[in-house]
Amino acid sequence: MHHTISFKNAFKGIWTAVTTQNNLRVHFLLGSLVIFAAAYLRLSIQHVLVLVLAIALVMVAEMVNTAIEFLSNAITLEQNHFIKHAKDVSAGAVLLSAIFAVLIGLMIFIPALL
User: What is the pTM of this model?
Assistant: First the structure.
């Protein structure tokens, strides 16, 4: 029973993130396009696996960023330099993961297209 509640809450969290965060929807759309392109180009399972992991990393980073934003806003909406730093660092994590995901994608797709 406890596991059922945990899974239910986890799916609620995913749903909350997807329905409230435009960036997560964009990542989901772009990730889906990447996977469809990989299938169209008949990339190896190893390449597809690396792409899926890169996409997942970006989406997880976006969800952690969202959680930090929600929690920070629940604590206070007033200016607080510690909260600002936390939000900036979590946004930076999303950016860094997205940059590396793009680099990974380029390393996989460019040779496949040549």
Answer: 0.87
Give DSSP secondary structure letters for 79-111. Answer: --HHHHHHHHHHHHHHHHHHHHHHHHHHHHHHH
**How many angstroms separate the CA atoms of 12 and 36, rounded?**
27
78 included as an active-site residue: no
- The arrangement of secondary structure in 2-113, i.e. its CATH architecture, is Orthogonal Bundle (1.10)
Taking only the tens place, the pLDDT of each residue in 83-113 is 999 999 999 999 999 999 999 999 999 999 9
C-alpha distance across the termini of the chain, in Å: 53
**How many residues comprise the chain?**
114
30 burial via Cβ count (<10 Å: 0-12, 13-18, 19+): middle
Nearest residue to 51 (alpha-carbon basis) of 31, 70, 22: 31
- Active-site choice (34, 54, 61, 62): 62
* Mean pLDDT, residues 21-31: 93
Instruction: Please report, to the nearest 10 degrees, the dihedral formed by the alpha carbons of residues 32, 34, 35, 41 taken in order.
Output: 140
